[in-house]
Input
Amino acid sequence: MEKRYFDLLQENPVIAAVRDEKGLEKCLQADVKMIFILYGDICSIASIVERVKEAGKVAVVHADLIGGLSGKEVSVEFLKKHTRADGIVSTRINLVQTAQQLGMLAVLRVFLIDSMSLDTVLNLRIRPDAIDILPGLMPEIIHRVHIGSGIPVLTGGLITDKQQVLAALSAGALAVSTTIPEIWDM
Output
């Protein structure tokens, strides 16, 4: 992970995750510095990213959730060429690798549902800029991934209060993403 993103997240460890226009409006006014964009389509994503950038924030697009984009590498190339997105989040390794090749922040999102998925994360053949593990309510697992992978860990999903954010950070997460506006200004 580039030092500027690492430093930004160390100083501001809450990432606003936005699912709609209402959430975007709120997060643009919040103290957060990084935004995960979880909505939009190929016709709207450039303007959504532009609004985030105009607010002086880092825009990270969840490439899997943008309508009209596919699971192919050209989707990341589209985001790089036609938006000012700083990076992507994706569950697809090929998209994460393409983002890295294009100089974008590349976050691999993984759903840890069993010991097999945990083993897969601990034995990744690629080195994304960060691993985003969901759900975020597993401090012991966050700690294991943090220590075992050597890759910065982000987490989110099902986190609903500040105590849960603090537990994830104490376990080794660099930052926590949430859609809950009350947590954004923590």
